[in-house]
Write a structure and sequence with these properties.
- It comes from Tsukamurella paurometabola (strain ATCC 8368 / DSM 20162 / CCUG 35730 / CIP 100753 / JCM 10117 / KCTC 9821 / NBRC 16120 / NCIMB 702349 / NCTC 13040) (Corynebacterium paurometabolum).
- By secondary structure, this protein is mainly beta.
- It folds into 2 domains: 243 residues, Beta Barrel (Thrombin, subunit H), CATH 2.40.10.10; 214 residues, Trypsin-like serine proteases (Thrombin, subunit H, Beta Barrel), CATH 2.40.10.
- It is built from 3 helices and 29 strands.
- The protein is globular.
Length: 519
């Protein structure tokens, strides 16, 4: 629940979102020049950008009209898994600065070797395939860089680079001062896989472990997709692209996807010999992209079309300070921009919140923003408006989870009296059967089979198997027994909101309203 955007699945970094996104060069220096093939993937998501240039991930030109990056960088705005079109994405190629110089060209299509929705069942780890190819709208003038002919051995000198965060403090992940507009680079080496504990098992292909063993230099947030270069016969070639940290504490080398192990797939896409069919696109209309989380536009009972529209998400998804344990944030000004998604994940309209009506992470984990537009206005612009449920989810109830990138079919395995995560406790949390969630999907609406009613919000999942720590919720039984299961996911009930929300605000003194008050 706390790891909003850095970790997407396991140890992967999502890119400046939720997001989860990517990494920067910590311990590097300003690069005097950029390799002609290096590019900055820039995605316009209002309310999500940390920097004015919308930098999201690094890319590298490997053919005149093709760049390679990390697969988790290519989940921005469309629901397709294998081959689909990106939303408002472009690449600036051949410049040390993310805002000027080089060539800025749009992205026409992307192809992903691995996807987060691929089965985690049967022990499959999609991070072994965290590679994507982006087809540009036109060929560019820059010179592509060759892919290495073989996997570099441990001890091979390597050059890493990127525009990600130079701050190692996770609390500064969204501090603009931590994100340089000028490229940073560092000289380092390929390490033995043992220096990266997050490389598990003997699966082939295996990621590369590159960077300082003490974490300097290493990758930071928003470096995902950036290259590691090595030399072959006196010339630079690309060996891998950033996927995530190599250690759980982010104080070691980084994980790089080994491009040499996926050369056949890369060549087949670029040469158009094997082009995957676009998979069926799930209907994700109604998802609201908040940058670090997902939300939905909900209408409480009695709200009229001319009432200010409200957006529901998690309490831990709010901008700024999170609600204190046991308390809530009530009726505070806001100026947060969000995107409302259409059926295929495309943006249908931009909406803006002028007030944070309510947020708490105690008893439940919910937040409600008030928009500066009415329900009638947002609906006229193409946004989906859901009804807010007035009854709780019961064991056995079925619902779908709309993550903005997928529509997951779920059911309630149990309603858990007490779930604890870090300093916060929630009551009557919904433990899922048939589905799970990953960081970056916080706040996703749980939608009833009628397709019109939001009955809950996705909240958190146990990522490491730990008990009751951040990102590792546990269940507390009446006798004090603590249970924590890695991968177990939970949603939150929202029926209490229907008893507390007014036409344009919240009244915590209403009969039946038992939400926490301001701390």
């Amino acid at each position: 629940m706390r790891r909003l955007v850095i970790i997407l699945i396991g140890t992967a970094l999502l890119a400046l979102a939720g997001g989860p996104p990517a990494g920067a060069i910590i311990g590097g220096k300003v690069a005097p020049e950029a390799p002609p093939s290096l590019g900055s993937l820039q995605v316009e998501l209002p309310g999500d950008a940390v920097t004015p240039d919308n930098h999201r991930c690094g890319t590298t030109l490997i053919a005149p009209q093709w760049v390679v990056t990390a697969s988790h960088c290519a989940i921005l705005g469309n629901a397709g898994d294998a081959a689909t079109g990106p939303m408002r994405a472009s690449v600036r190629i051949g410049s040390t600065n993310t805002g000027t110089g080089g060539e800025l060209v749009g992205v026409d299509r992307f192809y992903r070797l691995g996807t987060p929705t691929e089965a985690r069942e049967d022990g499959y780890d999609w991070l072994l395939r965290d590679i994507a190819l982006l087809r540009l709208e036109r060929p560019v003038r820059a010179t592509p860089i060759p892919i290495a002919s073989k996997t570099p051995a441990a001890g091979t000198p390597a050059r890493i680079m990127g525009w990600g965060s130079t701050c190692s403090d996770p609390a500064k992940m969204r501090d603009p001062q931590c994100y340089p507009s000028e490229l940073r680079t560092a000289e380092t080496a390929v390490q033995d896989a043992r220096a990266c504990p997050n490389i598990q098992g003997s699966d082939t292909p295996r990621p590369l472990c590159i960077g300082g063993k003490d974490g300097r230099p290493t990758i930071g947030n928003a470096d995902s997709g950036s290259p590691a270069l090595v030399q072959e016969n006196g010339a630079w070639v690309i060996a891998g692209v950033v996927s995530g940290p190599g250690t759980n504490d982010d104080k070691g080398p980084g994980l790089y996807m080994d491009l040499t192990q996926q050369r056949d797939w890369i060549d087949s896409i670029i040469n158009n010999t094997i082009v995957p069919d676009a998979p069926p696109t799930p209907d994700v209309a109604g998802a609201v992209l908040l940058g670090n989380c997902i939300g939905s536009i909900v209408r409480p009972p009695g709200a009229t079309p001319d009432a200010p529209a409200m957006v529901l998400t998690n309490g831990h998804c709010v901008s700024g300070d999170r609600p204190a344990p046991g308390g809530a944030t009530v009726n505070q000004p806001s100026n947060r921009t969000m995107l409302a998604a259409g059926r295929t994940g495309e943006s249908v309209t931009t909406v803006r919140a002028d007030r944070l009506v309510y947020a708490t992470m105690s008893r439940t984990d919910v937040a409600v923003y008030r928009l500066d537009s009415t329900y009638a206005q947002v609906a006229a612009r193409g946004a989906t408006v859901f009804d807010l449920a007035t009854t709780p989810i019961r064991p056995g109830d079925r619902f779908s989870m709309n993550t903005g990138a997928a529509r997951k079919s779920c059911s309630a395995e149990a309603v858990v009296p007490t779930v604890r995560e870090g300093d916060w406790e929630q009551r009557d949390s919904v433990r899922y059967r048939d589905c799970s969630s990953v960081p970056g999907e916080s706040g996703s609406p749980l939608i009833s089979p009628d397709g019109r009613t939001v009955v809950g919000v996705n909240n958190s999942s146990n990522t490491d198997g730990e008990k009751c720590t951040d990102d590792n919720p546990c269940e507390i039984a009446a006798d004090g027994t603590v249970t924590a299961v890695k991968g177990r996911s939970y949603g939150q009930q929202i029926d209490a909101l229907a008893r507390c929300l007014t036409r344009d605000s919240i009244d915590l003194s209403r009969p039946g309203c038992d939400l926490p008050g301001a701390a």
